[in-house]
Amino acid sequence: MAAICDRQWFETYLDAFNRGDFDGFGAYYADDVAFHGQAATLHGRAAVLAFYRGVRTRIGERVDLLSFIGSEAAVAAEIRTTLMPLEDWPDFPTGALIKGQQRQSINFAFYDIVDGRFTRIRSARFRRIM
């Protein structure tokens, strides 16, 4: 993967994520990526992809980029996350989800990058919209 970590590069990652292209967005993760998300803390590309495969069976998720600061070593992004439950999920890690009730939040995400791959991802919710 090219180490051009600009906005277009990152938007290509988000596009693959939003389409559920696991090979596409998984290519951005280092084998030993450390993922510290709101719904899980995971280690390794395989664990992150397995987590999202499970989540995607129960909810639709879309991430939209609001602001971006990046270099070859790191990305800081403000993102809007939209969750669209396909079924009720009362024990979802960030709060119960009800089928048909969309949830949106504004989040900050930080990505450490080595050789064009994420080695550490950290995210935090800034504000819940709905």
Characterise this structure.
The protein has 130 residues and is an alpha+beta fold. The protein has helices spanning 7-19, 22-26, 45-56; strands at residues 29-36, 41-43, 59-70, 74-85, 103-114, 117-128. The chain has three helices and six strands. The radius of gyration is 14 Å and the shape is globular. The protein has one domain (7-128): Nuclear Transport Factor 2, Chain: A, CATH 3.10.450.
Rg, please? 14 Å
Low-confidence stretches: none
Strand content: over 45%
The major beta sheet can be summarized as: 6 strands, mixed
Q: Could you state the oligomeric state of the chains shown?
A: single chain
Q: What is the 3D shape?
A: globular
Question: Helical proportion?
Answer: 10-25%
Cα-to-Cα separation, first versus last residue = 37 Å
Task: Supply the CATH architecture.
Answer: Roll
The CATH class is Alpha Beta
Strand order in the sheet with the most strands: 2-1-6-5-4-3
At CATH level 3, the topology is: Nuclear Transport Factor 2, Chain: A
Task: Please report the number of helical segments.
Answer: 3
**Topology as H/E string?**
HHEEHEEEE
Question: Could you give the count of β-strands?
Answer: 6
Number of domains: 1
Mean pLDDT: 94
SS-based structural class? alpha+beta
